[in-house]
C-alpha cells in the first residue's frame, strides 16, 4: 500500500486537491490518500465552505498555523508538517499551486528524503516581487514530479535546467473541478439572491498586496468601481485582506460607495462559479480566475502587470491590462461596448487531469 499526503493551505488549493482525492478513491486498494490542511486560511468562508462543497473529507491532519508574516507562516507550517511526516512516513507528498504552504511543505518533505509532486508547476510571472513567484521557483526546483498546466510551464522548466523526465504536461486540475461542478453551479440561486441578471453585471475580486496594500491604489480602485457603477451593477466578494485594508485606510463601504456596488463576504465555490459563468465581465487580480474565465469564455480584465498564466491571454479571453486605473476603465468600457475577445480552451483543460496525474504517481 502506497501512502500519499496532499497538502492544502489556502483557498485556491481546495479546488485543486478535490479532483485528485476523488480519483485516488478509485484506487483505494493500492493507495492510501491523506489530506493535510495547514490552516493558512482558516475562516469559515475562506476554507470550511470549500471542504463541504467540494466533497472533501475532514482533513486527516490540521496544522492550524493561521496568519502571520511570510517567515512566520512558512516556518510554522514546516515545524508542524515535519512532525506529521516523521510519524506517517508517506511515499509521496503532493503540493499544489504557489501559496506559502506549498513551498513550506515541499521543502520539509525533500529534507526528509520524501518525494514531492508539484501540481501546477512551471508557471512564471518573472516578477520576483510577488511572493507566489518565489514559492513557485523554489517548489519546482526541489520537486520530483512536475505536473504542468500549459505549454509555457514546460518551456520555463526546461529553460531553468530541470530534466525533462520530471516534467509531465497533464492539463489543469482546477478545471477538473469546474467541469465536475458546473451542472451544480447552473442550479445555484445566487443571481436571485443578489438580484442580478445573467450577463448584466460585473464581478470583481481583488486581493493582491500590489493592488490592495497601498492606500492610493485601493482608493483609486474603489473610485473606478464607483464610476462604473453609475451604469453597471457590480458584485464584489471581498477577500479579508482587502476588507481589512479598506478599514485601515478609512474607506467606508457603507457611505462611500454607489448603490450599484454590492460588497459581500467571500463566496463559496459553487455560487462563485455561477457568478463567473454569467457575468458580463470579470475584473480580477487572481490567478485561478484568469483560467476559469478562459475556460468559460467569459471576458476577463486582469489588473496586473504580468501573468504567470500566459495561455489565458494568448489563447483565452483574458485581457492583461496592468495596474493603471485609467487604462483599466478604458478597457472595461471597451469590452462592454462590445469589443470582446474571442477565445479558445487551452490544450488538456478537459476535466481529466487528475486521472493523468494519478496514472503517473501510481507507478
Ligand atoms: C494567499 C496566497 C495567494 C492566494 C490567496 C488566495 C501566499 C503567499 N498567498 O494570500 O497566493 O492568491 O491566498 O486567497 O500564500 N485572513 C483572514 N482569514 C483567513 C485567511 C486570511 O482573515 O482565513 C486575513 C489575515 O488577516 C491575513 C490576510 O488575510 O493576514 C492575508 O492572508 P494570507 O494567508 O497571508 O495571504 P492571502 O492574501 O490570503
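Sequence proposed for the structure above (363 residues):
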Amino acid at each position: 500500500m502506497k501512502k500519499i499526503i496532499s497538502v492544502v493551505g489556502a483557498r485556491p488549493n481546495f479546488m485543486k486537491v478535490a479532483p485528485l482525492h476523488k480519483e485516488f478513491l478509485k484506487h483505494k486498494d493500492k493507495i492510501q490518500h491523506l489530506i493535510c490542511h495547514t490552516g493558512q486560511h482558516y475562516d469559515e468562508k475562506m476554507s470550511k465552505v470549500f471542504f463541504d462543497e467540494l466533497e472533501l473529507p475532514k482533513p486527516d491532519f490540521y496544522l492550524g498555523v493561521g496568519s502571520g508574516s511570510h517567515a512566520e507562516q512558512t516556518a510554522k507550517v514546516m515545524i508542524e508538517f515535519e512532525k506529521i511526516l516523521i510519524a506517517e512516513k508517506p511515499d509521496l507528498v503532493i503540493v499544489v499551486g504557489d501559496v506559502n504552504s506549498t513551498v513550506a511543505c515541499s521543502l520539509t518533505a525533500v529534507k526528509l528524503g520524501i518525494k514531492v509532486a508539484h501540481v501546477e508547476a512551471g508557471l512564471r510571472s518573472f516578477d520576483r516581487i510577488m511572493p507566489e513567484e518565489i514559492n513557485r521557483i523554489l517548489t519546482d526546483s526541489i520537486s520530483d514530479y512536475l505536473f504542468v498546466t500549459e505549454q509555457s510551464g514546460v518551456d520555463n522548466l526546461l529553460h531553468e535546467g530541470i530534466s525533462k523526465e520530471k516534467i509531465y504536461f497533464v492539463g489543469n486540475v482546477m478545471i477538473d473541478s469546474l467541469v465536475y461542478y458546473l451542472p451544480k453551479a447552473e442550479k445555484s440561486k445566487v443571481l436571485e439572491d443578489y438580484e442580478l441578471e445573467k450577463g448584466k453585471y460585473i464581478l470583481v475580486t481583488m486581493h493582491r498586496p500590489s493592488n490592495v496594500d497601498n492606500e492610493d491604489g485601493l482608493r483609486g480602485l474603489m473610485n473606478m468601481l464607483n464610476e462604473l457603477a453609475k451604469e453597471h451593477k457590480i458584485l464584489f466578494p471581498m477577500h479579508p485582506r482587502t476588507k481589512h485594508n479598506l478599514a485601515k485606510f478609512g474607506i467606508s463601504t457603507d457611505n462611500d460607495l454607489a448603490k450599484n456596488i454590492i460588497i459581500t463576504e467571500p463566496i463559496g465555490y459553487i455560487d462563485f462559479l455561477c457568478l463567473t459563468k454569467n457575468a458580463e465581465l470579470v475584473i480580477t487580480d487572481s490567478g485561478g480566475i484568469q483560467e476559469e474565465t478562459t475556460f468559460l469564455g467569459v471576458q476577463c480584465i486582469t489588473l496586473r502587470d504580468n501573468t504567470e498564466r500566459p495561455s489565458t491571454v494568448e489563447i483565452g479571453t483574458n485581457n492583461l491590462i496592468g495596474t493603471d486605473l485609467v487604462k483599466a476603465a478604458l478597457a472595461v468600457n471597451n469590452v462592454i461596448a462590445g469589443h470582446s475577445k474571442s477565445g479558445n480552451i487551452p490544450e488538456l483543460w478537459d476535466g481529466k487531469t487528475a486521472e493523468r496525474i494519478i496514472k503517473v504517481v501510481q507507478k
